[in-house]
Amino acid sequence: MAKNVASKLNKGISPRQFLDSMQKNKEAFQDWGNRFEWASEDDREFFESINNRDDLRCLILMAEWCGDVVRNVPVIFKAMELTGMPIDVLIIEEHMETMDEFLTMGGRAIPIVIIADTGGHVLGQWGPRSAYVQEPMTAFKLANPDREAADYQEKIAIARQEMGRRYGEGTAYQQDIIKELRTLLASV
After folding, report:
1. pLDDT tens-digit readout, 115-126
2. N or C terminus: fewer CB in 10 A for the chain?
């Protein structure tokens, strides 16, 4: 059955309200946003071209305590702002039933960007991180399905360390997010 988020449209908070309400990681969140630059004029123009569509909505499942949110959502906000698309930020703790409809490999991982039509029919989703950064966690989960295994925590720590390495110190990872969001939006 196709997913529908009609009951969540206009039920979230705006990106500005999210930023204003942040108690944790606000400085880092703003820093990643301030460091974002469009590497491609073509990409920027693509996101602007969505502005003439009034049939799309964006919902973002997230929370301020999450490191992936702090790194990725400032980029998402910058890109989606250009589209003019209405954005509902859904704080995970307040929308667990929705989170549970958008699990990543059976687990709760954020942020999740949901693109829907005005009727709430889900057209696509992105997240919780770019495919390149996600790769080590996907490989780990496939190779280690038993969460009770003696070496599970040790191995997941290695996967997380590799994800951190792939994020890197700079902003190169941000262009992966732009490319993936562009591909998603081009398909809807």
Report:
1. 999 999 999 999
2. N
